[in-house]
Structures are given as C-alpha cells and as structure tokens.
Amino acid sequence: MLIAYIKSVMFDYKSSLLKNNLPMATSPTDGKRKQRSHQVYLGVDGGGTKTQIAVMNESREVTCEGLAGPSNPLRVGVETAVTNIAKAINEACDRGGVSRGDIAAATLGLAGVRRADLKRSVKESFIKRLGIRKVEVVTDAEIALYATTQGKPGLVVIAGTGSVCLGKNEKGEMAISGGWGPLAGDEGGGVGIAQQALHTIAKASDGRGVPTMLSQRASEYFRASGPENLIVAIYSPQVDNSRIAGFARLVVETAQDGDEIAIGILKDAGFELGLAACAVIEKLGLENSKVPIGCVGSVFHAGSLLTNPMLEKVRSCAAKAFLTEPSMAPAHAAALMAFQTPQNGNRR
Hints:
CATH topology of the largest domain: Nucleotidyltransferase, domain 5
CATH class of the largest domain: Alpha Beta
Radius of gyration: 26 Å
CATH architecture of the largest domain: 2-Layer Sandwich
C-alpha cells in the first residue's frame, strides 16, 4: 500500500511539472550521460624527441593539447612509446576537462612504424592501456602529408631529428624516400647535418681540413675543453641521437654567421632533401604537375640556406613544383584523420 501511494504521488508531481512547463529534477548521472554524448577525436604526432597530441571535438575544433617524451617505438620500444603517449593524453584531458572515455577514435602518427608488425604491436598496446578501440597507426610522414595537402596530391619533406619524404598522386598511390635512420640515412636531417659537421671538425683538428667556427661551437655544445677532446665527449653514453641532432641548430647559426664550411653543409643538406623529393616525384609520375611540397621540421629554420639548394634540385625534375608550409600542425592533422576515418562514417 505504501509503495503504491508513493508511486501515485510521484506521478501527480511529474504531471504537474509537465503541465506548467517546469523543469524536472535530474539525477547526478544525467549530466554525465549528456557529457558523454559529445565525442572527441585524438591525434598523436610522435617522434624521436617528443610526442604532441591534440583532441578535436565534433565541430573540428582542437580543444586541448598535450606534450610528453619520445614515442618512436623503433628507438625507445613499444611500451615506452605508449607510456609517453598516455602521459600526453592525460595532460591534455586534465587541462581541457575531457574524459578519456569520450575519445571515439584515434590516429597515431609515429616515426619508426613503417613495419606492419610494429604498427600492430603499438596498436595492441595502446588499446590495452587506454581502452580506445578505434585506432589507426600510421607514420609521422603520413600525418604531415595530410597537414600539407588534406588528402590531395603532393609531397611532404620532414627534416627534424631524421629525414624522410612521402608523396601521393591523383590515383591515391603513395611513395616514400629516406627514413632510413642514423646508420643508413638521415641525410638532410638533424643527425645527418650534425654528423657532417663533426666530420669537418675532426679533419680541421687533425690538419686534414679547413678551419671552421664549428670547432668552437661543438666544444661548447658537447662540453669539451677543446676540439681535440671532442672524441671523448661525443662518445659518452649520455650522448644519443637526439643530442647529436641538437647540434644541427648551432650549425645553422654558424652558417648564418657566415662560416663557409657550415654554409656548405646546409647546401649539401638541401640538395639531399631535394634528391629525396625527386625520387618520390618520379615514382609517382608527378614530373609535369604543379606539386606542392610541404616542409616540416626544425631543420627548415635554416631558411633559404637550405631551401634554395633544395628547390633548385627539385626544379630539375619537376619545373612546376613549389615549396609550402602545412596548413595545420601534424597532431591536428592526425586528429582530423581520426574524425574522418571510415569507421566513424565521416570520410568524404
């Protein structure tokens, strides 16, 4: 009887509210359900030095971003890579007031994942760690290309710690050049530039080469008492590829100060990047097309000292090609790719 009476009273109360257009009381969980209906999309740009992530809402607006350590699984391992990605996500979600449970899909653009088995391992570890089921793992070059062309034909050249060129033609065919890492490649990237600089410094110190201001810059950067002691400093266990690549910034500064040896190194780097672009252009049959080539990475801070020889080489194989900058950050492009994945039904 008591239960029936309570139900009757509640029914009369709700009817009265509806009749008078008054708002009904909500339970604490109602707001959470409403919030969860707004999905967000995750983009990851992971390299050998750092990881950047972006969270995009359904209006294609980036609402929050995060930063963490390296996530190139070939260099740091799958688990460390995923751990750093998770750190960046947590930082962004905390800052933007976003729940990880709202992330509907993710695109991870990572350096070092050209192998299918490595992509699969990263994807499995990421899903296990974060519980996000709709995940696509691609190379960092793919998200940089999308940031440049938004899916249209074109190329991107990345010159950061390493170097790589990726392109796509009107048929959707893709081709790549470079990306071989510090042992077999990285020409035109930070590691390649720094290594060439160290070669010239060693020759100058021995009397086998021309003196250069790079000798003093390297001594200061690697904390050696002089060029003759660089051999101890550069082979220290603490000096990894990221540290080596960082010296490229000083090579650029030395070139801007007028050092002929440093200028020559940047000219060689630009030629190598142009050579990589030409290889991709020829593979895709874009020689007669007006090809946009996006320039991404810290090495391009060198400006015309690098881009002039690069463009000269590119124009030798594709006269209408031109250099440009991406219209968005790679992490933002990755988030947009997640939003437009076929599994979300948004790809146009």
